[in-house]
Amino acid sequence: MVDEKRLFGIAALFDTPDEILHAAKKVSEAGYKNYDVNTPYPIHGIDKAMKLKSSKLGYVTLFFGFFGASSILFFMWWTLSINYPLVIGGKPYFPLPAFVPITFEFTVLNAVISTFIAMIAIVFNLPFNSHPLHDTNYMKNVTSDKYGLVIESEDPNFDEYRVSELLKSLGGNSIELIQNPERKAIKVLEPKFIIFLIIVAGITAMSTWWTLNKFMYLPPWNFMSNQNKGSAQAESSFFYDKHEMREPVNGTVARGFIPYAFEGVVDTNEFYSNPLLPTKSVLALGQKKFLTFCSPCHGNYGEGVSRLHGFFPAGPTLHSARVIGFSDGKIYNIITNGQNGIMPSYAYQITRDERWAIINYIRVLQRAQNPKPTDFSAISEINKESGNASN
Amino acid sequence: MALDYSLEPLLVEGNPPLKELDEVIIRPIDTKPTRKYQIVLAFFVSLLVIGAVCTGLTFYYGIGLWGNNQPVAWAFAITNFVFWIGIGHAGTLISAILYLLRQQWRNGIARFAEAMTIFAVMCAGIFPVIHTGRPWLAGYLIPYPNQHIMWPNFVSPLVWDVFAVSTYFTVSLIFWYVGLIPDFATLRDRAKSKVKKTIYSVFSLGWRNSSRQWMHYEKVYMILAGLATPLVLSVHTVVSWDFAAAILPGWHSTIFPPYFVAGAIFSGFAMVSTVLIFIRKIFDMEHIITIDHLEKMNKIILLTGSMVGYAYIIEWFMAWYSGSPFELFTTLDRAFGPYAWGYWIMISCNVFFPQLFWFKKIRRSVPITLAIVILVNVGMWFERFIIIVSSLSRDYLPSSWHYYRPTIVDLGILLGSFGLFFTLVLLFARTLPVVSIAEIKSIVKGAQPTHHEDE
User: Fold this and answer.
1) Is residue B2 part of a domain?
2) Reduced to 3 states, what is the DSSP secondary structure of residue A305?
3) Which of A103, A142, A355, B7 suits A157 as a labelling partner, its CA being 20 to 30 A distant?
4) Helix (H) or strand (E) segment spanning residue A173
5) Domain count of chain B?
């Protein structure tokens, strides 16, 4: 009945933890390597008796903990600082303290999942429901109330007679010969199974398509997109003027168009003063607006010679002593209200800030035409610093 | 083994043989349910159905069906969320922290408490999702590459919450499952019917109770406990930041994290006690879940209840000491304003009644314990309600002050969450071993070697 080739090992059951500890010690001392002790719960000191080395799984936890921490930190830095930089609550792009909670949570998550998988799949090689010990009388007892020891036939010292004598002498009872199960080839490519797979794939694909293309457009998911609302250019059945688009309330002030106190007053004695400093960005804005709105008549450098020369009354030069003598406020007044019936008002084309920026830019043009002696030394200073002394 | 466990009282009364422990623990799984069980299950399933109907109505018509409105936008949903998350904390405390502290009495109740953690977190997880009104868009909370180049705001406490709660759920589930694997092996080897045997075999993964496996297993169990311990403290801390990071008076406070964690353990132990008192009675497990267990849990309830009481006192002190008129107003308003009824329910249930546990007679009396732990559950629900609703209903703008009233749908969803929780608990009690078989066997007297050989 017992097939020698299929013998997995010889198992014995013991009644008390003391006996199993003693037996494990003796079996280990007898030089057996391929043996195992199966107990309903962990027995203190069995690792010493079996001379087992302590578990290395802690290193898996450590490594994947660090890996989790650094990868999530890197990910948050990349999303919030590189991929889509966003200032949130006045915090910097890489607010480390605010990243701590998620880093911690992800570290724990990563460490736990990897330790679990490492233990189950790699160290224990589970799931393994076809192990020869399963469904034996031996296994039924060691998962309940007995302590068992099995010596496997793969052990170099294995000898059927000697092993069973040893186990008997140690006080083991119910000596059991355990056989390897017959190997059954599993046919993965059976037609039934393939048809089953195809049906599952079809149902999954169709229900996904239906969910994404039909289901999500049924009520209540479409309530948001089917609200009662008007489009800007559509006809209204509600408002008396049949416009969906409403006009702003009287006295509404748009951003950047705060009313000018001297609107329409061409010659006034009171002026605002320039609120903007001639910084790089202000001058760049001024240059852009000057070239757009002023240069057609006054010329690209304000010299009064322009590309419209001969087609339109030429604008005066901005380098005359008279214009140089104008205050910023007066130029602002001219841009806002127009002058001499020829220059129109630019109040609706150029915003307040842009007008002040243009004025700063005009001052730069004027200074370039009439430099002060100190400007030359300043220029040579700059050139020296940038190592461009030849100019 | 230098430790002497003989000074401890017996962890399992009567010292039953191991086989009998198997029988007692597995009996509820093998026998047909009684009429009583069916009635109780039917009751909680009907609550669950009420909750499902109310949630369905909410999905269809939107959260206009709830009492929420400006300025009280959080109300019931977030109250329930914080309440249920708190309930979960006791499970992890019992299974992880008491494990690290070598408190062997935990073995009798750990499995049940862990299961309650998982069910409570499931109940909690529903609320933040449904309170957004369009829960089918919750996928945007997960950072995934999309065509909008849109990422979650990783510096927001609400996103921390998503990570904390989902991590907590996953880790609790793994921890629970790792504990269940040896028990599935025991169930597998006892199963008579083929269907049951197949199911148990699949879940046992072919576990063989081998000492070579136990050695790694114990190590991993320790590692998981070590990781779960800071995790459980972090979860309610993060939940409390949802409030503490806002500038609302009554929320903007540094005491919130420890105060919330203590409150969570307090309410969680109360819930574990409530359920265990019934379970040990119904399933004849009074010698496994002993009166000593209940007394020890009552002591923890007394400790954490006092910590919560201390936090209430500190809130009053800080209201005055901070010199902020808004803080002072909110604190006074809670005690004497329109929600004073809720405040005094909270104070009496959380601070006054648990103090009765100073008396040993009361600690060891099952009916009085049951009454007090139910009151603690009520009180802790009201604590979250008061924190959220009273602060929101009277904020900086008196013109928008508003008295929040829940609607019937609000109440239905709250009942539904209790229905879900207890339905899951009842199903669990009949399908899986409510006490860890392997762990309880290891602490029976005589279960460990005497080590005469070593001496």
Assistant:
1) no
2) coil
3) A142
4) strand A173-179
5) 1
**Chains A, B: CB contacts under 8 A, how many?**
216
Whole-number pLDDT of residue A388: 57
Domain range for B259 is 19-442
Structure tokens at B14: 């009567």
Answer yes or no: are the C-beta atoms of B153 and B186 closer than 8 Å: no
Provide ipTM, 2 decimals: 0.91
Q: Considering the domain boundaries, does residue B260 fall inside one? A: yes
B7 has a pLDDT exceeding 60 = no
- One-letter amino acid at B408 equals I
- Domain annotation for chain A: domains and CATH numbers: 1-184 (no CATH), 280-385 (1.10.760.10)
Mean pLDDT, rounded, of chain B: 89
Chain B residues inside the 8 Å CB shell of A46: 211, 214
- Checking if the pLDDT of A194 tops 50, the result is yes
pTM reported for the whole predicted model: 0.80
User: Which residues of chain B neighbour A79 with C-beta distances below 8 Å?
Assistant: 143, 151, 154
Nearest CA in chain A to B197: A135
pLDDT at A313: 79
CA closest to A109 among chain B residues: B167
DSSP A54: P
Helix (H, G, I), strand (E, B) or coil at A7: strand
Residue-wise DSSP of B366-419: HHHHHHHHHHHHHHHHHHHHIIIIIHHHT-S-GGG-------HHHHHHHHHHHH
Instruction: Name the pLDDT band for B83 (thresholds 50, 70, 90).
Output: very high
What mean pLDDT comes out for the span B284-293? 83
